[in-house]
């Protein structure tokens, strides 16, 4: 298994997920600041020219949520995804994808001050996205209640970037408490150390 990554990018989410699973994975640094992602060899892995990407034998994928879903499924011993047939799997998939389908566009809307009718935006509105998250995270401690999952890796990473790292979204008590729980996880701490070291 190989992770194609670059520090201080969405790759940090997959680093966290890998640490949660305990799976062995070779990290291949892609220097996006020098444009290495535009090389033909990398274009064959991810034609979107973005990191992260994951190659596991014959399986090749990009998109952070897809990678996290894949890792949860290939590491069932880590108990990071409800099984197919478990009613909790619907909520799990919903919030696994919510991070990229709603949180990221909401961040872009805030950052660019983009005006778009909420009925036309797939995410509704930035305000709605964070109000919904606030309501869900008040139920806690995790998005599936007492069970931590790959959906928390995605939601936790998204909130970290918009609330703590870039300060685009004002903190709310539910966000702060949730992020504190994420930050206390040893896997989060190991992933952050790898990301900071950049190797």
UniProtKB/TrEMBL annotation:
Q: Which UniProt keywords apply?
A: Transferase
Family annotation (InterPro entries): Glutathione-S-Trfase_C-like, Glutathione-S-Trfase_C_sf, Glutathione_S-Trfase, Glutathione_S-Trfase_N, Thioredoxin-like_sf
- Highest taxon of the source? Bacteria
- The EC number(s) this enzyme carries: 2.5.1.18
Q: Does the keyword Zinc apply?
A: no
Q: Which gene encodes it?
A: gstA
Q: What is this protein called?
A: Glutathione S-transferase GstA
**Which source organism does the UniProt entry give?**
Methylobrevis pamukkalensis
Its Gene Ontology molecular function terms? glutathione transferase activity
Using the record's annotation, list all stretches that form the GST C-terminal domain: 85-199
Q: What is the lineage of its organism?
A: Bacteria, Pseudomonadati, Pseudomonadota, Alphaproteobacteria, Hyphomicrobiales
Q: Does the keyword Methyltransferase apply?
A: no
Q: Where is the GST N-terminal domain?
A: 1-79
Q: Which SUPFAM superfamilies match?
A: GST C-terminal domain-like, Thioredoxin-like
């Amino acid at each position: 298994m190989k992770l194609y990554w670059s520090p201080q990018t969405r790759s940090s989410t997959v680093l966290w997920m890998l640490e949660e699973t305990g799976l062995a994975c070779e990290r291949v640094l892609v220097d996006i600041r020098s444009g290495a992602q535009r090389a033909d060899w990398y274009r064959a892995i991810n034609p979107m020219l973005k990191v992260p990407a994951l190659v596991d034998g014959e399986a090749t994928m990009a998109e952070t949520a897809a990678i996290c879903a894949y890792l949860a499924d290939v590491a069932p011993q880590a108990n990071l995804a409800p099984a197919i047939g478990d009613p909790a799997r619907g909520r799990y998939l919903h919030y696994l994808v919510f991070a990229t389908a709603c949180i990221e566009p909401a961040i872009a809307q805030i950052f660019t001050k983009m005006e778009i009718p909420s009925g036309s935006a797939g995410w509704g509105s930035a305000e709605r996205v964070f109000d919904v998250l606030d309501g869900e995270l008040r139920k806690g401690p995790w998005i599936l209640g007492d069970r931590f999952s790959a959906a928390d890796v995605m939601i936790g990473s998204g909130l970290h970037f918009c609330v703590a790292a870039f300060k685009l979204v004002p903190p709310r008590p539910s966000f702060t408490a949730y992020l504190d729980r994420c930050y206390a996880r040893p896997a989060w701490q190991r992933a952050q150390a790898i990301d900071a070291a950049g190797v």
